[in-house]
Design a protein that fits this description.
With 253 residues, the chain is an alpha/beta fold. It contains 9 helices and 10 strands. The chain has a 7-stranded mixed sheet with strand order 4-3-2-5-6-10-9, sandwiched between helices.
Length: 253
C-alpha cells in the first residue's frame, strides 16, 4: 500500500502500533539517540506545561509528566493511546496540521510544544507552526525533530542509479518503505536544509539550538548495525525554536 501525501495521516494510523513496537526495542535509535537528545534539550520540565503534537501513543508525554511537568496534552490522529497515562495528561485524537481547530486545546497555552518526528505529516508546515505559536507561553519554545534530508537522497540515488546531488535537489516526491512495517510505503514531499530553514523563517521562528545526535561509544560497540546505519544516513536534526520578537514600530519618516 502506498500512502500518498494527501493520505499520510491514514498511513500513520496503520503504522502507529508498529512504530511504538519498534521504538521499544533495545536497539531502537529512538531509545538510544533521539529521545535522550530530545530530553536533554527540554531540560528541567518541572512545573512546565507541554503540548506534544503527533504524540503517538503518548508514552513520551506521560514520562515528562511523571518527571514533574504540569498539566499537558498530546494530540495524535491515530488515537491509539496508552491506557496508563498519569493524572495531568490529556490525550486527544486530532490532526496536528490544524492545532487551532482541536476543540480540547481551545484557550490553552503551553510552555513547551513538541513535534517529535511528526512535523513531516503537517499539510501546510508554515501554518502549523504559526498556529502552534499562538499556544506558546511567553519564554516558551518549540522542540522539533526532522529526519536528515540526506537520508532520502542517499536512498533514492541507490535505487534510481543517480547521484546524491541529483536526488537531494530533486523536487519530486519520494516514496520509501517504512522501516516499521515494510508492507507499507510512504510518499512524502522532498525537502532540503534550505527548505526547512525557510519554513522556520516564514513562521517567524529563530533557531536557538540545533543538534545532530549520534550513538555514544558504548552503544556503537553494542549495536554496530545501528552505527553503520548512522554512518550512511546521518540520523536526525533536533531544533529548539523560539518566536521572533514582534517588530518594533518605526516612527514616521
Amino acid at each position: 500500500m502506498a500512502a500518498e501525501r494527501g493520505s499520510s495521516s491514514q498511513a500513520w494510523q496503520e503504522l502507529t502500533t508498529d512504530y511504538e513496537r519498534a521504538r521499544a526495542r533495545d536497539d531502537s535509535l529512538d531509545r538510544l539517540v533521539e529521545w535522550p537528545a530530545q530530553r536533554e534539550l527540554l531540560g528541567d520540565v518541572t512545573g512546565r506545561s507541554i503540548l506534544d503534537l503527533g504524540c503517538g501513543n503518548g508514552g513520551k508525554l506521560a514520562e515528562l509528566v511523571r518527571a514533574g511537568a504540569a498539566a499537558s496534552a498530546g494530540v495524535d490522529i491515530a488515537g491509539k493511546f496508552i491506557t496508563s497515562a498519569p493524572s495531568g495528561v490529556d490525550l486527544i485524537r486530532g490532526d496536528l496540521s490544524h492545532p487551532e481547530s482541536v476543540p480540547e486545546l481551545q484557550g490553552r497555552t503551553f510552555d513547551r510544544i513538541l513535534f517529535l518526528q511528526s512535523f513531516g505529516y503537517a499539510k501546510d508546515p508554515v501554518h502549523t507552526l504559526r498556529a502552534a505559536q499562538t499556544m506558546l507561553n511567553q519564554n516558551g519554545f518549540i522542540l522539533l525533530t526532522r529526519t536528515q534530508p540526506i537520508r532520502y537522497a542517499v536512498e533514492q540515488a541507490e535505487r534510481n542509479g543517480t547521484t546524491l546531488g541529483e536526488e537531494y535537489f530533486s523536487e519530486a516526491d519520494y516514496t520509501y518503505r517504512s522501516r516499521w512495517n515494510e508492507s507499507i510505503s510512504l510518499t512524502k514531499r522532498a525537502y532540503t536544509m534550505s527548505d526547512l530553514l525557510n519554513v522556520f523563517s516564514a513562521a517567524r521562528l529563530w533557531i536557538e539550538t540545533v543538534v545532530e545526535p549520534q550513538l555514544d561509544d558504548e552503544a556503537a560497540r553494542r549495536y554496530p548495525h545501528k552505527q553503520a546505519y548512522l554512518n550512511k544516513y546521518l540520523g536526525i536534526l533536533i531544533f529548539k525554536l523560539r518566536p521572533l520578537a514582534p517588530a518594533e514600530s518605526k516612527p514616521p519618516s
